[in-house]
Amino acid sequence: MRADLFLVPGPVGEQRLAGKTLVHIDVLRASTTICQALKSGARAVIPVAEPGEAAELRSKIGNDNSVLGGERDGVKIENFDLGNSPLEYTEDKVKGKTVILTTSNGTRGYNRSGGAKLILTGALVNISAVAKKVFQAGNDLVILCAGQDGDFSIEDTLCGGMILHKILTDDKVDMELNDSASLALLLYRTNSRALKQTIARGEHGRFLKKLGFEEDVELATEIDALPVLPALKDSRLALDSD
Ligand code: MLT
C-alpha cells in the first residue's frame, strides 16, 4: 500500500486521488465535532467552506430539519445555532437533523476530494475505526491534514502518523510512504506517550484554552472516545454503511 500524507492543505489533484482512500483530519476541532454530531444521532453533516453558503443551504433544507454550526476565530458565527465545540453537539440538539458545518480550516478540504474512492473523517476520537477501514478497503491512502491557516499543525500530523503506525503495526501492512508521511510517523512514534500534553501545548491547543475551550482539547485527545466512521457521499458525511 502506498500512503501520501499532506501536512498542509493544497491542491492535491484528482489524478493523485483517483481510486484511493482519502482521510481528512482536523483534530482541533472540526473532525472531532463531526464525529460527535454523528454519535449524537445527526442524520448527516454537510461540510461547507463559507458561512454564506451554509446559510443558503439551510434555507433550502429548512429550519426544522437542520442545525447550522460553525466558527470563525474559534467562536460561534453570529446567528448560527451552534459553534464548533464538539460538546455542544448533544442528542437534544442534533438527533435526526442534518448539521451544516463551516469552520475556518477543517470543513474546507472536503471539496478537494474529487476522484477518491472512499472519503473519511479522521480524528483521534475515532482513530481505530479509521485505521481498520483503511486497511479493509485496501486502496492506496492519502491523508490530508487541515492545519491552521495554511500552516502545519502538530495535532493533525500526530493523528496522521498514528493512523499509519496502526496500519503498519496492527495490520502488518507493508507501506510505501512519502516524506511527509514518514515525518508524521516519526513524530507520532516519538510522542506516543505524551499525545495529550503535546497537543495541549501546541498553538491551537493554547489558543482554544485561552478561549475557554480546554474541555474540547481534552475530548479531542481521547483515543477512540467516539468510535464512529463518517464517510462522505454526495457531499454529506454520514455513518459508513458499507
Ligand atoms: C478549524 O476548522 O480551523 C477548526 O476546527 C477551528 C476550531 O478549533 O474551531
Task: Give an account of the 3D structure.
With 242 residues, this protein is of the alpha/beta class. It has one domain (2-231): putative 2-phosphosulfolactate phosphatase (Alpha-Beta Complex). It is 37% helix and 20% strand. It has ten helices and eleven strands. It has helices at 14-17, 30-39, 51-61, 91-94, 127-137, 154-169, 179-191, 195-200, 203-210, 214-220; strands at 2-6, 21-25, 44-48, 66-72, 75-76, 98-102, 118-122, 141-145, 176-177, 230-233, 236-239. It has a five-stranded parallel beta sheet. A four-stranded mixed beta sheet has the order 3-6-4-5, sandwiched between helices. Helix 9 crosses helix 10. The two termini are 21 Å apart. The mean pLDDT is 96. It binds D-malate (MLT). Residues 26, 28-30, 71, 74, 84, 103-106, 146, 208 line the site of D-malate.
Short description:
The chain has 10 helices and 11 strands.
What attributes characterize this protein structure?
5-stranded parallel β-sheet, 4-stranded mixed β-sheet, 242 residues, alpha/beta, binds D-malate, putative 2-phosphosulfolactate phosphatase
Structural class: alpha/beta
Helix content: 25-40%
CATH architecture label name = Alpha-Beta Complex
| Stretches with pLDDT under 50, minimum 5 residues | none
Overall 3D shape: globular
Distance between the termini: 21 Å
The number of distinct helices, counting runs of at least 4 residues, comes to 10
For the record, the count of structural domains works out to 1
Tell me the strand percentage band.
Answer: 15-25%
CATH class: Alpha Beta
* Alpha carbon gyration radius: 16 Å
Distinct bound molecules: D-malate
Number of strands: 11
What is the name of the CATH superfamily?
ComB-like
Q: Major beta sheet, specifics?
A: 5 strands, parallel
The side-by-side strand order for the widest beta sheet comes to 7-2-8-1-9
CATH topology name, in short, is putative 2-phosphosulfolactate phosphatase
On the 0-100 scale, what is the average pLDDT?
A: 96
String of helices and strands: EHEHEHEEHEEHEHEHHHHEE
